[in-house]
Amino acid sequence: MAKSIVLVETRRFGDSRGWFSETYAEAKYAALGIDSRFVQDNQSYSAFAGTVRGIHFQTPPHAQAKLVRCVRGSIIDYAVDLRKGSPTYGKVAFAELSAENGKQLFVPVGFGHAFVTLEPDTEVAYKVSDIYAADSDGGVVWDDPDLAIDWPLPPTGAVLSDKDRILPRLADFESPFAYDGAPMAATGDLG
User: Fold this and answer.
1) What DSSP string runs through 46-111?
2) Which residues contact 128 (CB under 8 A, 6 or more apart)?
3) Between the CA of residue 168 and those of 61, 123, 148, what are the distances in Å?
4) What is the pLDDT of residues 85-119, one digit of tens each?
5) How buried is residue 153: exposed, middle or buried, by Cβ count under 10 Å (0-12/13-18/19+)?
6) Cβ contact 33:1 at 8 Å
7) CA 69 to CA 185: how far, in whole Å?
8) Can you give the pLDDT at residue 113?
9) Which element (helix H / strand E) includes 121?
10) Would you call the peptide bond into 61 cis, given omega within 30 degrees of 0 as the criterion?
């Protein structure tokens, strides 16, 4: 299983009709260090700019790696290191994903995942390496000051689910994820 966050830049082949892009090919992604087996595809729609989804994860035995892309609109996508003992524990990496740029973010097991929509009517699609399991569902509150995420929100503020408003802070979270010896390759803006 890949141990690091990977920003994938997909290649687009264009002509007078538009463009074509290969969004996943097992052998090519394995060469990038993404060797997770994906078992489920998910898609979300967010009506408003400033919609925050996360910071979510699933705990073992149903921990999930995710391969995230934005198919309509744009987002800032975040990965938070939650592996106990990691030198980058609580550190955040992020990238802008949009329908226009075609970039994807791979978020390995042991990392929390979140995104904020930058425009209305945004759709996000992602592959996961395990099924959804309610008893493994977890999260950390999106605005935890210890994470110091600078969310690009509109003047109206964040649009949140009730669930995301009441998640625990990182300081109150007992991580079930073990550090695997591979620190995050990069933190901050991945480009």
Assistant:
1) E-STTBEEEEEEE-TTS---EEEEEEESEEEEEEEE--BT-TTTT-EEEEEEETTT-EEEEE-TTE
2) 38, 39, 40, 41, 42, 64, 65, 66
3) 21, 27, 15
4) 999 999 999 999 999 999 999 999 999 999 999 99
5) middle
6) no
7) 20
8) 98
9) none
10) yes
Angle at 113 between CA 109 and CA 118, to 5 degrees: 150
Residue 2 has pLDDT above 60, yes or no: no
Name the pTM for this structure: 0.95
Our separate counts of H helices and E strands in the chain read: 2, 13
CA–CA distances in Å: residue 52 to residues 18, 47, 77, 89? 31, 11, 10, 22
Give the list of residues 6+ apart from residue 19 with CB closer than 8 angstroms, or none: 12, 13
How far is Cα of residue 56 from the mean position of the Cα atoms in its chain? 9
Distance CA 8, CA 104 (A): 5
Q: Catalytic residue numbers? A: 56, 126
Q: How far is CA 147 from the centre of its chain?
A: 15
Q: How many CB atoms lie within 10 A of CB 121?
A: 12
pLDDT digits (tens, 9 = 90+) for 50-90: 999 999 999 999 999 999 999 999 999 999 999 999 999 99
Q: Which two tokens stand for residue 170?
A: 């990182």
pLDDT of residue 184: 86
